Amino acid sequence: MFSSKQIKGRIGEGPPEGPCIECLVRVCCSRFCDDYIFYHRMSRFEEAMKAFEEEKKPYYEEVRKAYNRLQVKSLSKIFKVFGGNKRMNNGDFGSIEEYSDLVGTGFEGRVDIPPEEEFFHAVYVAGQTRKNHIGITEEENKLQIRGVQYNLNEVNFIITNVKEVLVKGIRDAKNQESIQCFCYKSAEPWKGTSGRVCGENSAARAANEFCNICRAQIIVSGVCCESSGKPVLDSEGKPVFMFIRGKGMKYSNVAEYLGELHNRDLDPIFEPVTEDSKKFEKSIVNNKRFVTRITIGEAQSNFGMKKVFNLNAGEALPKNAVMGILKISKKTMENFNEKFDWARRRASISDYGNTVVGEDQQFPGQEVDSAEPTKTPESEKTDNKMFDFGDLKF
User: Fold this and answer.
1) Do the bridges between strand 355-356 and strand 177-183 make them parallel or antiparallel, or are there none, so unpaired?
2) Rg of the chain over CA atoms, in angstroms?
3) φ/ψ bin of 101: left (φ > 0), alpha (ψ from -120 to 50), beta (otherwise)
4) 192 shares a domain with 88
5) Which of 31, 33, 113, 235 has the fewest CB atoms within 10 Å of its CB?
6) Is there a contact between 62 and 1 (Cβ–Cβ < 8 Å)?
């Protein structure tokens, strides 16, 4: 499972009387148990402790054997954390669970992740010609996949997850958007980060003085692919995940495209066919049964013509490919929520200041609705030689 050298390198020699077996197992779990590490990083301490209790048993014998090889005399005495002049090792300070009550009393600064290392890559229309963070010139009115590809006329992807959110944002003199209230619409009644209950529709929100500038946005993520449906892979052979944000002028086309796919009567995938299964497929599965093609369109606003996304359904996917996409959707759900549920970042959304939207999620466009219709999708096709999405590793 692990060597004496590994353990010794992690916690050192220990004081003369030897370390406590429970402490040693805890230290080993903190390094080697995947579930324990994951929950700690997410500050989900109760689940971390549960994972520890479930996973610690195999470690006891291994720790004993390893430390016997190091000729440590005793495994029964507990470290004396406040033991006078004794030298303190990493294991002397106890575990992080002892301080779990302090969660929520700190402050989390923003950690910038290079676009190339993001899990989801933003697709946007360049508003002006400029050099980006790696010196590539992004051309005006071209599609960009941040951190992946630049200056494209079209982008193809297969939808994995869709989420409508509510955002009350205010732009400052530098055109930076600060979020005053955010709702992920995860449970009814919807409640925003301000603590207020959200109106069920735009009319209800418009009638509320606090909510009247709140707008709906649609986030659509997916696997970047070629027009045939073959996924685009990175240098490590992993799929590239991307997303678009339908907000302001870009909202209407995205909503209409998803609505059109929802209304299609397609051959069912799941059996037996029931009213519930048909409802599920229309809402969740239909938008994953085609390659979605993104191009740039225009729509009239109160401030002139604005660039928007035009979405069209392209190649139809065979059922086995659709099932592969559904599995990917399920596997990446936590990544999606972590990226787009801003309510999880409450440390930065408080009475003392508002969240500033990160550059990777900022998009040009005024908060004005558009009635621009979506183009009619292309005819449905089936290619039984489609890439097997079950082969993807990420």
Assistant:
1) antiparallel
2) 26
3) alpha
4) no
5) 235
6) yes
- How are beta strands 130-131 and 215-225 bridged, if at all? unpaired
The answer to whether residues 202 and 209 touch, using CB atoms and an 8 Å cutoff, is no
E strand or H helix that includes residue 120? strand 120-125
Beta bridge partners of 124: 144
**How many Å from the N-terminal Cα to the C-terminal Cα in the chain?**
25
3-state helix, strand, coil in the chain (%, to 5): 35, 25, 40
126 exposure class (CB count in 10 Å sphere: 0-12, 13-18, 19+): buried
Nearest to 157 by CA among 57, 257, 24: 257
Neighbours of 279 (CB within 10 A): 10
Q: Domain boundary at 102, 129, 153, which? A: 102
Reported confidence tier of residue 177, pLDDT bands at 50, 70, 90: confident
Beta-carbon-side half-sphere exposure of residue 203 (alpha carbons within 13 Å)? 0
Together in a domain, 210 and 244: yes
Contact between 55 and 39 under an 8 Å Cβ cutoff? The reply is no
Query: What does pTM read for this prediction?
Result: 0.65
Sort 147 into a burial class: Cβ within 10 Å, 0-12 / 13-18 / 19+. Answer: buried
Expressed as residue numbers, the domain containing 244 is: 115-391
